[in-house]
Structure formats: structure tokens, C-alpha cells
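On clarity, I found the account of how folds are encoded harder to follow than it need be. For illustration, here is how one protein appears when written out as sequence plus C-alpha cells.
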Amino acid sequence: MPLLADGESGIDTHSHSLSFVENRGQWHHNVRFRADLGDLNALFLEPRAFTYTYYDMDDVAQLHDLSQASVDEKNAFRLHGHTYKVRFLGASNTTPMTGYDKRSDYNNYFIGDDPTRWASHAEIFDRVTYSNLYEGIDLSVYSRDAALKYDFVVSEEANPYLIHLFYDGADNLALQEDGSLQIETSVGLIRELRPYSYQLVAGDTVAVPCRFLLNEDNVVSFFFPTGYDHKLPLIIDPVVVAATLSVPLLLTMGIVLLLITTATFIRELSPLGRAIRSVQARLMYRLMAAGLI
């Protein structure tokens, strides 16, 4: 669990934005950065993939009661979750991943009794960029209004049809009549709205019609039915909506957030920012008190 570095006050000056913590050995070596999505949920940034992990809030709600449970009850308890990857098929194997807008604070990690899993001075950033993920195409990951977003930035003359996203581990994918993409997981549904793309023309934002293409292998790409100006950069900016997800989801690509949970928990999560971090801390304490971590 992250601990404040020596001398840190604990005052959160970025309470309305998400952050990306570098991996200094505290996580699997495939991971370069991690973003905390709230209540144990996380996004792991890897060289050619995003990995999303979500937990069932019904199980999380039982953690407090486990502090008084017997050893057998604790051993029998299962915290259910779902992990899936979005793999960037055909992407570069040598894509540089760089953190930008470094924060003044940092995290220390002391995980278990194995010093090889400990890490200190893990830097925290507000943005991560994959440079030249595809030829002439960058991927920028950041947050806005407490929403995790990512944009594909296609340089002039580059080919956006190179982008192919394989949803590996999702239970099912389906395109809807409104052009959105529905992702089924064991903890609920996620819906990605029809993607928004645009170009900057003489200082003005000009929308470019864009839609998903989905093949039978759960691979998603983008299609531009009216074309676009190949002599100007193109930005592709999808939006994700939590539809019937049972976890509070601070999700990706320009979030629209819908909490499917109890009124009490919604009050705990409002306002955004520090309240969310407080709930996360309480969940960690519950896990520790229950003897689960």
C-alpha cells in the first residue's frame, strides 16, 4: 500500500485529477505506470496494452464485517473481480512511454515481507504519452474533471486505420444501434460511446464523423465515413460509460460516470477527489483489519 514519503504533509493539491505512478519494482515488470480508479480498481499501462481491473462492490461491502469473522470465514471469503486487457495490435515493440507534468509528491511502497517488492520515491505524473505507438500516431493518457481520458493523436499523412484494439478477457463485445460499443464483464456492462474525432482548422475545432468497427475476434478499429483532411493532425477521443457496473467506475477516454450502488456509498464518494481517496483508505484499512492483506 502506498505510504507518504518522509516529510510529506499529505495535503492533496490535485484532488480533482487522477494520477499515474511509475513502476519501480512494486508491480509486475510489464507495468510502466498505474492509475488508481477508486476502491481498489486500477488501470495498468503497459507498452502495448491497457489492463483494467475492477472489483465487485457487494464483496467489498462485506470487508468491514470480516474484521469480526472467524479464521474459517475469512479463508472462505472471496473478493470477486474482473480483469481485461485492451491490446494495441500491430503497435511498435519499442514505444517510449513518458510521464509528464510530474507532481512534487511521490509514493513509497512496502509490500509484504519481501524487500524486492518494496519501492521508494515512485514519481507521480498527470499524463503519460506513448510516442509513435503506431507510425505517426501518439497515444496520450491523462485526466480531465476527475475523468481518465486517452486520445489517439494522428499526425498529418499518418494512417489511423493502423489502430486495432483487441479486447482480451471481456466476456462479450457488441456494437449497438447508436454506434456505441458494449463491453460485458462479470461485474457488469461498460458502454463506449460512438467515438468523437476532430481536427483543428485555422484555430477552430472541426468534428470528423467517426465510428467503431468490430470484427468477430473482438478487435475494434475506427472508420471515417466522410474522410478527413490528411494534411492536418487528427484526434480520436472515445468516451466510456459505466452502464450496469456494480463498481463505482472512474473510467477512461472522457468519462461519463454512473454509479450503480447504494445511496450511502454515493454520499461517501461525493464530492469527487479527496472523498474518493478517503474511501479508498478506509477500504485498505478494512482489508488489513480483516487479515486479507
